[in-house]
Amino acid sequence: MLFNTLPFLILLLVTFTVYYMPWFAKWQLPVLVAASFFFYAYSYPAFLALLLVSAAINTYASYKVFHGNDHTRKFFATSGVIANLALLIFFKYSPFISRMAFDPHGDVGAFLLSIPLPIGISFFTFHGISLLVDVYKKRDLEIYGGVIDKNFWKHGLKTSLYIAFFPQLVAGPITKSYAFMPQIYQKYIKDIHWEAAFKNLVLGYFMKMVIADNIKDQTFWISYPFFQAYSTPTLLAMIYGYSIQIFSDFAGYSMIALGLGELFGYHLPVNFNFPYISRTFSEFWTRWHISLSSWLREYLYFPLGGNRKGNARTYLNLMIVMFLGGLWHGAAWSYAIWGSFHGLALAAERFFGVFIKPRETKLVKGLQMLAVFIFVTFAWLLFKLPNFDDAILYVKAIFNNTHSGQTNFGIIFYIILYSIPVVLFHLFHLAEAGVEKRLGFLKPLLYGFLVFTIIVNSGRTGSFIYFQF
Amino acid sequence: MIKKTIIAAIALFIIYNVILVWAHPIAGPGQNQWQKNRITVEDYVDNFQGIPVVIAGTSLSARLYTSLLPTGYYNLALSGESIYDVLDIVKRCSKKPKYLLIESNFYYSKPDKTVSEGVFNPLMMPLRKWLPSFREENQPANLLMPLFNKGSAGKNNTSEKLDSNIQNKLLIGRIAEYQQVPDSNLITNGIGRLKKDIAELQSKGVKVILFEIPINCKLYNTPKYQVAEERLNKEFPSEKYQRMPMPDCRAYQYADGEHIAFQSAVKFADWFVGELKKMGVKP
User: Fold this and answer.
1) Which residues in chain B are closer than 8 Å to A453, comparing Cβ atoms?
2) Do A384 and A219 contact (CB within 8 A), yes or no?
3) A456, A458, A463, best to mutate vs chain B, most B CBs in 10 Å
4) Is A329 a catalytic residue?
5) B-contacting residues of A 187-246, CB under 8 Å?
C-alpha cells in the first residue's frame, strides 16, 4: 500500500479515528498493530505470515533474553539474531545465491530463484536485531525495566508494533529499539504536535509526488538500450536528475513517515539532513539515510572494532561495513560495488585527511561539496542500472555522444525545473540555519504553494525506490 | 499556520483556475510520454468522441500524429501501453467511431488500464469538466515549457537527429531482443482478447481494420516476429477480418529499429491514408 493512494488515506483516517476514541483508549496498541498488519497485507497477503513469524521470533527471543536466566541469555540473543539474518538471507539473497552457485535451471537453482522478495524485509529484520542486541546489552536498563513486560502477550504486542509500525514498516526510518519501545504508552489527541506533523507531511508529499514522481518519467530513459540514443548533455542531465529523484523520493518518504508517526504520538528519527551539502564522504553518511548509517555504525562497525584497532583495521572495517551496507540495498553485485566505492572513498578520505588540510575558504568548501556530489551522483548509476555492463555503457555514452545522439530539451528543462526546489532547500540551509524562522508570514504562503502543486502538478504515481530494498 | 496554509492553497487554486479560464495559456505537448498519453485520451474523451476514424495503437503508431492525418481522423495510440488500453477507452466512450484501425504489431501485450481508469475516474471526470486545472495539459509545469521553448507550443515533434552509429547499436539490441519468442500463453491470451474486443465493437456498429506499422526489415525474419505473425494470420484471416496490406519496410527510416523516424512518419501517413481510401474508408 502506497502512502499516496486512496486506500491508504482511508486506512489512515479509520485508524486515527478509532485510535483516539475514548472507548478504545485501552486498545490503542492492538488497534495500531492491526492497522499495521492490514497495511502490510493489503498488496501481498501471503507475506503477512512472514511478518508474524518475525514478530513471534523477536518477541520470544527478547523476552527470554530479558527475563530468562543468565545461562541462556546469550543463547537466545544469538539464536534470535541468527534467525533474523536467516530470514533476510533466505528471502532476499536466494536468487542471488542461485545465480552465483547453482544452475538456474536445476532443481535447487530454480527453487531459489522462485523465492519472492517480501517488501520491507531489510527494515523489519534490522528492527528485530536491534531489539535483541539492545535487550542483551541491557541498554538503558532502567527504561527497559518498564518496557519489556513481564506479561508475555503484552510484550508480544509491543514488539509487533516496533517491528510493524506502518509509517516505517516498508522503508524506515530504521528506529533503534531503545528509541522506540519506551514511546509505547497511551496517547492523547491533545498531545499531537500538529504543526510538525503537517509540515512533514506537506514537505514529504511534495518531494515525492511533485519532484520525484515527475523526474522519474524523465530519468526513465536511463535504461538499456534507450540511453544510447541521447547526447552527452541529456545523459548528464538525466544522471543529475536521478540523484535529485532518489533524494526526493526517499527523503520524501521519510518525512511522510515522520509526519504519520507524529499523528499517532511517535517520534521517529530524522533520516536526511541536507545530504548534498556534504563536504566529505564521512559527512555525507551522517546526512544520508541517517538511520541506516547509525544502525550499521552501532551494530556492525563498533562490534568489528571501529577505529580502535589501528589504521589498517579501521580501513578494513570501513570496507566491510560499506560492502555489506551496499548488499543490504539489493541482492546484486552492483550494490556491493556501489557500497565498496563508498567504502573506498571513506578510507581514502581518512588516509589523505592526515596529510591534506584544505583551507576553509568558500571556494574550497564549494569545490569539496561539488566533488562529493559528483561522486555520489555517478555512484547512483549502479542503483538505476544494476547490470554493471549497462552502467559502464552509460558512462561510455557520456564520453562518446558529445556530437551525436538526441539532445532532448524537454528532459533537460524538466529536470532543471523540478530540481530547483531541492537545490533551494539545500542552499537555504547552507545560507543560514534560521531561514525558516525568518520567512515569517511568508511561511504559510510557501507551504500553501506546496499544497497547491501537490494538487495540480503531481507526477504519475510511482512506488518508492527504497521499497525494493 | 495550518489554517493559513490551507487558505493560501485554496486561494492559489482558485486564482490558477481563473487564469486558465480567462487567459487560455498555451500548453506544452506533455512532460513525458505518460502525460502525453493522458492528454491524448482526455482530449478524445472530452472533445473528440464520435470522430469517424480512430487509430488504436502503441508507441509504434503514436508517431503518426493526428495533424498528419486528414480531418475526421484521431490517433489514440498510446506510447508504452497496449492496444487493449486504447480499446478499453473506445469501449467506455458512449459515442463510437465509424472505423477503428487497430495496430496488430504487439497484439499479445497485456493491458494495464491505468490510463483509462485515471481518465474515467468517476470523481475526476466532473472535476476535470468544471475545474480546468485538473486537466493533465494544464499542469503548471506543462504551461511553463512553451514560455522557454517556443517550438514546443505545437504538439508534434516532426524531426529527430538520426545518427547511423547509434541507430545501428539500437538495432543490434532490437535484433537480439527479437530472437526471443513471446510466451505462447501470452499470444493465445492476446488472440482471445483481440477477438473478443473486435466482436464487442463490431456489435456496436464499429468497422474494424487491422494494420501493421513497418519496422526495420531486419526484424521481420526473427523468431519473435515470425511466431506472432504466423498466429495472427491464422486467427485473423483476411477473408474474415479487414486487414490493411503490409507496408514496404524499405521505404522508411527507423529511429531504433522498431519505431519509424519522425521524418518518415509523414511519408508513411500518406501511404496509410491512401490505402485506407482504397479500402473505402471515408471519414
Assistant:
1) 140
2) yes
3) A456
4) yes
5) 194-195, 198, 202, 214, 217-218, 220, 224-226, 228-229
Contact B2 A457 (CB under 8 A): no
Residue A65 half-sphere exposure, CB side, CA atoms within 13 Å? 28
A396: its cell numbers: 561510455
Give tens-digit pLDDT for A282-298.
Answer: 999 999 999 999 999 98
Q: Rounded to 5 degrees, what angle do the CA atoms A465, B2, B7 make? A: 105
The segments of chain B whose pLDDT lies below 50 read: none
Query: Facing residues of B254 across strands?
Result: B260
pLDDT at position B160 is: 64
Per DSSP, chain A holds a count of helices (H) and strands (E) of: 22, 0
* Residue type, position A47, single letter: F
- Minimal-distance CA residue of chain A relative to B7: A448
Question: ω into residue A173 within 30 of 0, thus cis?
Answer: yes
Residue A5 touches chain B, beta carbons under 8 Å: no
Which residues in A207-266 belong to E strands, given as ranges? none
Q: Are A66 and A91 in contact (CB under 8 A)?
A: no
pLDDT in tens, A380-400: 999 999 888 899 999 999 999
Q: For residues B175 and B182, what is the distance between their CA atoms, to the nearest angstrom?
A: 14
Q: Which amino acid is at B79?
A: S
Chain A residues with CB inside 8 Å of B161's CB?
404-407
The contacts found for A308-316 with CB under 8 angstroms, 24 or more apart, are A311/A351, A314/A350, A315/A347, A315/A350, A315/A351
Alpha-carbon gap: A413 to the closest alpha carbon of chain B (Å): 8
Would the CB atoms of B31 and A457 count as touching at under 8 Å?
no
Measured CA angle at A290 (ends A289, A293), to 5 deg: 90
d(CA B182, CA B177): 10
- CB of A314 less than 8 A from some CB of B: no
Please check whether residue A32 is in contact with residue A115, taking contact to mean a CB–CB distance below 8 angstroms.
no
Report the SS3 class of residue A442: helix
Q: Which three cell numbers stand for residue B120?
A: 474515467
Which DSSP state fits A182?
Answer: G
The tally of CA atoms less than 13 A away on the side-chain side of residue A435 is 11
